[in-house]
Design brief:
Elements: E1 2-6, E2 14-18, E3 21-24, E4 26-27, H1 29-50, H2 56-69, E5 77-85, E6 88-95, E7 100-102, H3 112-122, H4 129-146, E8 153-160, E9 163-171, H5 172-179, E10 182-184, E11 191-193
Antiparallel strand pairs: 1-8, 2-3, 3-5, 4-5, 5-6, 6-7, 8-9, 10-11
Helix pairs in contact: 1-2, 3-4, 4-5
Catalytic activity: Cleavage of peptide bonds with very broad specificity
EC number: 3.4.25.1
Protein name: proteasome endopeptidase complex
């Protein structure tokens, strides 16, 4: 599952590198978009030359090596490369210093501390696609609710053996009423939280 908010109407924070691989953006939008587009080109060239898709590990290593060669030059990139290849699912974190980590779940960006709280609390290895999508939406909502630099639309993608598929794009303002229920009080212009048992 890959999810991101997008406060801008014109910039998507989830970039479709190829039909089996997605990248997320955190940091400078121009840097992230340029290097993801560059990675997409290199992945396509690899596929044409070798008659097979590049692995997720190979693509993330390629991006990490490129960014490492530009370290100290002011790039601002924090990204996750997620996809499905011959080895199965793959998820890597790559940053502008050339760092690269493999993992099962990551959160990147200014809202990530809030998202990690929800992810760590709700994650199970055996989750269904619907449960994982709901956890992803809830994580994005809580990050956007607590972080002033986040907001807009929460996009959720599922990556599987047949490629990625966009599952939803919800306005986080609408998610507020679902995840943070309130009810009117007797005092005008005041709301209280609904106690959830």
């Amino acid at each position: 599952m890959v999810a991101a908010d997008s406060p801008s109407q014109s910039v998507k924070k989830i970039i479709e590198i190829n039909p089996y691989m997605l990248g997320t953006m955190a940091g400078g939008a121009a840097d992230c978009q340029f290097w993801h587009r560059n990675l997409g080109i290199k992945c396509r060239l690899h596929e044409l030359a070798n008659k097979r898709r590049i692995s997720i590990a190979g693509a993330s290593k390629l991006l990490a090596n490129i960014l490492y060669s530009y370290r100290g030059m002011g790039l601002s990139v924090g990204t996750m490369i997620a996809g499905w290849d011959e080895q199965g699912p793959g998820l890597y974190y790559v940053d502008s210093e050339g760092g690269r980590l493999k993992g099962t779940r990551f959160s990147v960006g200014s809202g990530s501390p809030y998202a990690y709280g929800v992810l760590d609390n709700g994650y199970r290895f055996d989750m269904s696609v619907e449960e994982a999508a709901e956890l992803a939406r809830r994580s994005i909502y809580h990050a956007t609710f607590r972080d002033g630099a986040s907001g807009g639309v929460a996009s959720v993608y599922h990556v599987g053996p047949d490629g990625w598929k966009k599952l939803s794009g919800d306005d986080v303002g609408e998610l507020h009423y679902q995840y943070y229920p309130v009810e009117p009080t007797s005092v005008e212009h005041e709301m209280t939280e609904i106690a959830i048992a």
